[in-house]
Specification:
There is one protein chain. With 87 residues, the chain is mainly alpha-helical. It has helices at 2-5, 17-25, 40-52, 54-86; strands spanning 12-14, 32-34. The protein is 68% helix and 7% strand. It has a two-stranded parallel sheet with strand order 1-2. The chain starts with a helix and ends with a helix.
Length: 87
């Protein structure tokens, strides 16, 4: 998650649904390597492609993270409004 907040392209090696969900939510499922089906050659190929496309991927990450931040900020503002209204 921290790499996404920093706008850095990342390969995730995982078999956990929460990691898969995060990668999908941020449009990065292409860079998800299933730990149960791990192969060094596949990881190497994925890494080479990611390095080649890193600028485009980084822009996409920053855009998606910005949208997520805006949605969270909107939720907080709504919550603060509700709390102020009930005081």
């Amino acid at each position: 998650m921290l790499s996404f907040l920093a706008g850095k392209p990342t390969i995730a090696i995982s078999n956990q649904p929460k990691m898969s969900n995060l990668m999908v939510d941020l449009g990065q499922q292409r860079w998800l390597v299933d730990a149960d089906e791990f192969e060094v050659d596949k990881l190497h190929r994925t890494f080479r492609i990611l390095v080649q496309d890193r600028e485009t991927v980084a822009r996409d990450i920053r855009s998606r993270v910005d949208r997520c931040r805006a949605a969270v900020n909107e939720q907080y503002e709504g919550l603060v409004g509700l709390l102020r209204g009930s005081a």
